[in-house]
Amino acid sequence: SQQGEEDPQALSIQEGENATMNCSYKTSINNLQWYRQNSGRGLVHLILIRSNEREKHSGRLRVTLDTSKKSSSLLITASRAADTASYFCATCFITGGGADGLTFGKGTHLIIQP
Amino acid sequence: EPEVTQTPSHQVTQMGQEVILRCVPISNHLYFYWYRQILGQKVEFLVSFYNNEISEKSEIFDDQFSVERPDGSNFTLKIRSTKLEDSAMYFCASSRLAGTDTQYFGPGTRLTVL
């Protein structure tokens, strides 16, 4: 299995603080994607980082990828109450068929205290 | 901004009945996917579809499941004879390029099998 596994499982911080979530996976990947899910809702794509990239930014989000350690981190800076959600990493590897499914981790449930 | 849509948002059915879940992918996307999420568990890949045929499928996607693109816009998932354990949120996703591209998810259909 080359599933992603996030830690921590749950994280509670004060509004304005930074939140860091980590993801580990087991086998070589083509890319790694981070998604957000509000309770009972759909998955919102946040950022994709390819295996040849080490860091990517998007607004208040920063993602790093260390392929030697098979790990990634998602940093949310200056957190807001609206950032309260579950965050998932999803890995993709090429099977040759082209339309490859993502393998999701269990997610980190982030709670931002106002 | 274009988005993936799914209907219905909630489907309740009796065990043994057939259900069809519908999705309209983003219009210029070529790759389509179905995932499911049992309550409290990970998002799991079911199947991917490209060029009018299945590209990849997981062990979950057995003979009870089928997918179809009946016209130029819809993408459907059929479960022939539903079981209690099929109760889950089903997500459709699409990507413009191969699976290594960003996958955009719909809001999901919550399937409840009684």
Which helices and strands, and how do they pair?
The complex is a heterodimer of chains A (114) and B (114).
Chain A: E1 5-7, E2 10-14, E3 19-24, E4 31-37, E5 43-50, E6 55-58, E7 61-66, E8 71-76, E9 85-92, E10 103-104, E11 108-113
Parallel strand pairs in A: 2-11
Antiparallel strand pairs in A: 1-3, 3-8, 4-5, 4-9, 6-7, 7-8, 9-10, 9-11
Chain B: E1 5-7, E2 10-13, E3 19-24, E4 31-37, E5 43-50, E6 53-57, E7 65-68, E8 75-79, E9 88-95, E10 104-105, E11 109-113
Parallel strand pairs in B: 2-11
Antiparallel strand pairs in B: 1-3, 3-8, 4-5, 4-9, 5-6, 7-8, 9-10, 9-11
Report the total helices of chain B: 0
SSE string of chain A, helix = H, strand = E? EEEEEEEEEEE
Mean pLDDT of chain B: 93
Q: Report the oligomer.
A: heterodimer
Notes on the protein architecture:
- The complex is a heterodimer of chains A (114) and B (114).
- In chain A, 0% of the residues lie in helices and 54% in strands.
- Chain A has no helices and eleven strands.
- In chain A, the strands form two sheets. In chain A, strands 2, 4, 5, 9, 10 and 11 form a six-stranded mixed beta sheet that branches.
- In chain A, strand 4 and strand 5 (43-50) form a beta hairpin.
- The termini of chain A are far apart.
- The model of chain A has no long low-confidence stretch (mean pLDDT 89).
- Chain B has 114 residues and is mainly beta.
- In chain B, a hairpin with a 6-residue loop joins strand 7 and strand 8.
- Chain B starts with a strand and ends with a strand.
- The A-B interface holds A 3, 30-31, 33, 35, 40-45, 48, 50, 88, 90, 92, 94-95, 97-107 and B 31-33, 35, 41-50, 55-56, 58, 89, 91, 93, 95, 98-108.
